[in-house]
Write a structure and sequence with these properties.
Largest sheet of chain A: 6 strands, mixed
Radius of gyration of chain A: 15 Å
Strand content of chain A: 35-45%
Number of helices of chain A: 3
Distance between the termini of chain A: 36 Å
Helix content of chain A: 25-40%
CATH topology of chain A: Nuclear Transport Factor 2, Chain: A
Shape of chain A: globular
Oligomer: homodimer
Number of strands of chain A: 6
Number of domains of chain A: 1
Order of helices and strands of chain A: HHEEHEEEE
CATH class of chain A: Alpha Beta
Chain lengths: ~140, ~140
Amino acid sequence: MSNDREGLIAANEELYAAFEAGDLDRMEALWIGEPDGALAKCVHPGGEFVRGVEAVLRSWALVMANAEDLQFILTDVETLVQGEMAMVNCTEIILRPGAGPDPFASSHAVTTNGFVRVAGRWRLWLHHASPVMGAPGGDTE
Amino acid sequence: MSNDREGLIAANEELYAAFEAGDLDRMEALWIGEPDGALAKCVHPGGEFVRGVEAVLRSWALVMANAEDLQFILTDVETLVQGEMAMVNCTEIILRPGAGPDPFASSHAVTTNGFVRVAGRWRLWLHHASPVMGAPGGDTE
């Protein structure tokens, strides 16, 4: 199994595919389940920590209900794997095809996603997304 | 050495102590160094990813130069340790004693800090802090 970076990248992409599909069942299948559900933590952009897998899934239901037709393009995807724990950092380019006069209106967020491997499968325990403010394309580097 | 949760908590607190002291040498001692400096990633609230330990330390020099007299109170500190990798999630209550008419003016941020253990010592490779918007004390849970 080694590091299974391909499986990790696929699990990370599944988060955004489930979001785009508005599919809470796929979201639940991705997140860590019981008996480790207390590990789950989620920060939506501008939000507080949501803690525990039940509250996290409720928060996703709410976010997905209020964000139809969003599309995500991931850039700068980087991974760090250690044993049964892995982190993925990426930038989310968020396209809102239906939003306003510009069909390509977009914003972006920066994200830390944390996974643990349970029975050979990467499960999400942490999603921390934060808004990027200031000039579009601005970079502090 | 086991999980060394005490050392991890201490390393997490050192980030904020170094920030309060405006001490870039302490900050550098906490962050991962070469040859692993490319792992370093940092998101200041509202910012993009800053990548690589040199750029990360430059960003801290800038942040500390523009944020004198800040004080941090950490709450909801939670840890996850796996082998030589560990994550700390916490809420930062940020006090600005000199800011405006209210000497206790504060804001808060939510943070994911990632550590790796190098030669028995926890070193920071990831700091991802994000602003909490909306009503003070508001919570999405």
